[in-house]
Design brief:
By secondary structure, the chain is an alpha/beta fold. Helix content is 44%, strand content 10%.
Amino acid sequence: MYNDPAIYCWLAGVPNSHSDETKNANPNLKRLRELEMTTPPSSAAQTGGLSPGPKKRKIDDGKTDSHEPDPDPDATPRSSRSQRPSATTLSLRTAFPPLSSLSHSTTASVVSNRQDRSSKGSRRAASPVKNVTGLQRLDKPVTFDSLDDNAGLTQLPEDARQLYYDIFAVTKYQTGIYPAEIRPKVEALYAGHPPPDSVYRKHESGNDQDRMRHDEEHFFDYLPISALFSGTAEGASFQARIAHAEFYKVRGIKDRARECLALHRAEAAWNTKVHEPLLELALSKRHTSVRCENATSARILPCFLPCLITGEVAEGKMVDFVLAPNLGSESELDFAIQNKLIDLAKQMKSSGLISAQLCVNRTDYPPLMRSPAAVTIETKVAGGSLEEGRLQLGIWTAAWHRRMETLGVGGGKAGLQLPTLPLILTHDHEWSLYFAVDRLNKIEIFGPMPIGMTDNLPNIYQLLTVLGFLGAWIDTTFRSWVINAFCPRTD
């Protein structure tokens, strides 16, 4: 009925002086009057000899809809925030093509206004850095370069060369990846072709065994209790029981990893079932000095986001895990870092930046407040982009450099250069290592260097060995740098 052109034209000529009684007596008439008032006059109606009606009164939809209920029960609910036309309005406009053509500019204006309101309502803008190449446009550029096997020692600074050499020997020749105590089990893995003696580690030194016995109760957090006493002869040494327990743990990780790939599990499931247990196992011998933190909730603070040379701010990227030295809440080094952060916070005039200055890293995630991040790990699964993973590692590293700059650390200041930072990127079973080198005017990231996989026991043992080297590097080389940076000697 309401789509009849004759009715619409007749309504267009009705004056705006109807009495309230007439309006109330015919609610449908009121509805069509409102619909007609939202539509510009049609040139087709004028050429047909109909004189236009009086100028219609402007309706303030915002005031009417936001404060008073519509007395018409048949009226379409409207919102002050939406200019979307009702179904009836759309049908009337369809019946009059000339009217639609005339109202095109008005419609475009409404759409534009909606887009403007939408953009104002969402403060998150698209990142100007879309790929790894875009990192070269940062104010401190980040570049990715290949890591040559023969030139690796010359490409990397002194603080990472021994680490690279140890990892290279493991990944190239699988040197020292197995505990000697599980030799029979290892030889069974190679189906009649036993590996050379070089794949077995030397027995732990006396000091290491004493430390392990002292911390024996903590190994129950990482290894299955039943495995501590299975597969070993009665009266076996504590080291032998630990080696066998580790073997059963590795076998379980391998099964979970294969299951995650077969079932197409999400990245979070891989992190929970595979990556975190593997990292904890690798660092179990250094659990009191090196920490593994799940960083999926650690956002980069806006003031530490790297900027482009054009002045734009790169979008923050989160990573999955961070390895950091465990400084201890009562240690002298922890107090030194606290005091330095507090002194800098007192110098800040903007209250919005004071809280940010109380973090030693580029994030205010509580577990990483005062433990400088040493190794960053980003995980990807099937369907995840390795390019996106490298971009995340690049942004995270650039933000750390920016944070250290605000602390007055590195950047050539006081002769102290920022350390080389190991970065890890995983994709399903594969784990790859990168080295982020501070060149003062830029950051060079070398890699990838394959360090292991989670698809079988030999590859997992290789990966555990590499992660163990990284834990030792954090506990020695990186910790020494932290001491020099935040607790320098005064003599």
